[in-house]
Specification:
alpha+beta; Aminopeptidase; binds coenzyme A
Length: 171
């Protein structure tokens, strides 16, 4: 059970809602697209079985939020997935990532940019001050997205770029 009861959240053209069991195969297909999985640390295709094991663990966790982003202008068509996890409530920091714009027709529409301010506010209202992110240094699309969103560079190490958004807190 999750500790926080999160409401639906809206951007200008995007709705953010929590992942549901019926979304599992859709997000697995998105995650397994070569254009997406190449950017994850585990870059092999995820099997149905492993995906279900992951989901069972996710359901047990009370501080890990997977979101589906829906396009309000296309009858709430699911277009992307995102996650907020690795919370440190003592310092007010969490990691954001696992982004995949899975619906090809939504690529280049700035859907993450549309929802990000509302997404940050959702957690800020619950005491969070900072989002952290890590991206492979050659993932130019993701890096450009993060810098457009206002993320600042923290460090670069082992081909990874570490970014921060909001009020930088000590870990
Ligand atoms: C990173 C990611 C979420 C960013 O989403 P996005 O839709 O590419 O981001 P944007 O809307 O800012 O588009 C970025 C650029 O891609 C271009 N683009 C790429 N493919 C496109 C397509 N098929 N159709 C239209 N535009 C496309 C856009 O023109 C845009 O360029 P612009 O900013 O000059 O207009 C997305 O690329 C993705 O899912 N990547 C794979 C997984 C990943 O890397 N996740 C991040 C891990 S931290």
């Amino acid at each position: 059970m999750r500790k926080l009861d999160l409401p639906d959240t809206f951007g200008k053209f995007t709705r953010l809602r929590l992942l549901e069991k019926q979304d599992l195969e859709m997000i697995r297909a998105w995650r397994n697209k070569p254009r997406a999985r190449r950017w994850f640390n585990f870059s092999a295709p995820v099997t149905r079985e492993n995906h279900h094991i992951w989901y069972e663990n996710y359901c047990q966790s009370n501080d890990d939020y997977m979101f589906i982003l829906e396009d309000l202008e296309r009858k709430n068509l699911p277009v992307a997935v995102a996650g907020v996890y690795n919370f440190n409530w003592a310092t007010g920091s969490a990691e954001i990532g696992r982004f995949v714009v899975g619906e090809d027709s939504a690529l280049g529409t700035k859907v993450i940019n549309d929802i990000h301010p509302a997404m940050f506010k959702l957690f800020e209202q619950r005491g969070l001050a900072e989002f952290r992110a890590q991206v492979k240094e050659n993932n130019h699309l993701a890096l450009r997205m993060f810098f457009d969103l206002g993320y600042k560079l923290c460090a670069t190490e082992n081909q990874m770029v570490y970014l921060t958004y909001g009020k930088e807190v000590n870990q």
